[in-house]
Please model this.
Amino acid sequence: MNGEFNETLNRVAVLLPLPLDGAFDYWVPDGLVLAEGDFVEVPFGRRTMSGVVWRLGGADGGLESSKLKTVIRKHDAPPLPKAERHFIEWLARYTVTPPGPVLKMAMSVPAALDPPTPKTAYLMGEVADSLRMTPARQRVLDVARDGPPRLPADLAREAGVTPSVVKGLAEAGALKPVTLAIAEAVPDPDPDAEGPDLSAEQEEAATLLKAQVEAETFAATLLDGVPGSGKTEVYFEAVAQALRQGRQVLVLLPEIALSSQWYGRFAKRFGAAPVEWHSDLTVAQRRGNWRAVAEGRAKVVVGARSALMLPYPNLGLIVVDEEHDPAFKQEDGVIYNARDMAVVRARLGEFPVILASATPSLETVSNAQTGRYQRCHLPERHAGALLPDVTTVDLRSDPPPRGNWLSPPLREAIAETLAAGEQSLLYLNRRGYAPLTLCRKCGFRLQCPRCTAWLVEHRGQRRLQCHHCGYNVRTPEACPECESVGTLTPCGPGVERLAEEVAELYPDARVLVAASDTITGPKAAAEMVRSIEDHEVDLVIGTQMVAKGYHFPMLTLVGVVDADLGLEGGDLRAAERTYQLLFQVAGRAGREDRPGRVVLQTYMPEHPVMAAMVSGDRDRFLETESAARRDMHMPPFGRLVALIVSGPKDHEVEEACRALGRMRPDGVDGVQVLGPAPAPLAILRGRHRKRFLVKAPRSANIQAIIQRWIGASQIPNSVRVQIDVDPYNFM
Model:
């Protein structure tokens, strides 16, 4: 450089976890060496923030040198891997989101950017002859003489003394200080631990998946198997292969806090527990697990959708279990589908991804049919178990008694199951006691003051609650409208009300209600599983939290109380979702040598969903659903983007919709804009809401079109426009 100063080598572009466009330039102080991906602390306005060095030499068109601020320090953390940075940029472009909020998901534990403060522990030191010895001091020295270094509090507790005794011995030199790094050791799963015997079909599928991992190239594979076919054991073989090659593995589960049986199967197969990532972890656990991932010490991570955003330095396999599950779609903040983004992350990192399901989504099936994904099919249950027999009860001709919810055929099936000493599951996807409470006298319905939603009664807690925003109030004695006492009446059943009916019909049955209100975390879920496995429960009444993944050998009857529930409304995927849920919950019955049966209560036994359940012809149902979507140019044969316009004042939302309407890109590259229309939840958490729905052919660059549209529209500052690419929720 001929001795000339080159300022581009002394400036960097730093991306901050803020909803702002692009990175910001900073000076690099003398003596600080930075690389792309390094986590740094920088001044921003009147505060300091942590971000990531996104580019050396600064951003194109950055600030002039005189206005730049200086990087404060580099965090003591491994850099954000290159593949992860590319993934953040890709996800931001796809979701039409600034990259800062996407980065924020990867930096979800700011305290983890620096290692934990080392702590001082003590070993046995030199005991001077002049040291006055007491029984308390002698007990401390006896503990310290044998074993590893111990923290002062641990020494005091084990010796049964006060901390001051330990402190005095340390000051006298009788205890020698040792500095301990307090990062917890992460047990390594053993890939060569003995696994279960696989059937010929399972072995064939496992061989393909292991070969993909060994090749260390991108491949997406649908692992399609009926409930009980052993999909988990098959993909465990791919996990083992990735571990043998020294790679990290991510397994995504839709409801991680409720997957205690999965943990047990993993520990039995690999001799160690995986590293967890979900919302029920403590702050300390999240900090430790984030660093274990970033430092490569976490070999297998199992988590909810947010686990996809962790900074893996050596990721070699992703498994998306129950890939069809809508829980993989994040609806707030950065709106994305973790299943789809897992495929992108694997492609960017050049490693395989496995999508496992008994009821794969139509998008995944379409990709397998067109050859974009490979497919492994497990059509039979393991060890000769048979799929359950499915029948429908037409509630039009065989209704329950007045004021009840179980039809005579279902009541009889439950009684027969109890008499045989077997277990039953009644499935109703409604929490609480009743979904609606109204006044018999004036017709007033109790509604959430912040949402367009009815308040759900939770009789055990004597409260009414909104399941959308969390608002709750004590159940009133009198009608708030006409002030009549004793006229408030529950309408429709929830699981609590169903439990009342069951208690009257089968007073000797041991009943468990399994819903998110009663099973509130991993420990409660593990206890639920144990009690059912140990046959301490005769009859389970549950919501969709018990519909997937569980294996209960004595459970032989599944009764679906309202099989039509998911078919209500105009949701694009209503039939597909209903079929998936019914098929999954039906799959809990008869998983071992005892035959299972499923009873569906419905007002529409002729509906294609019910017909497919009874016939067991899943592929025909998918073909019919696929043809209907293709004719309408709906996903996966077309593109959809939803724009949700919301604000605290209705007239400002109307103004924003008019501004967007004037600039709507109708006809551009085949785009069709529908709306604006009031959202089904027209008010949510106090915000008025309207929706546009954009249809486009798959060939259209829909993200660019949306960006230009919003950029050309004048939106009031108080109004928020959320962009939902590939919407799953139409509320």
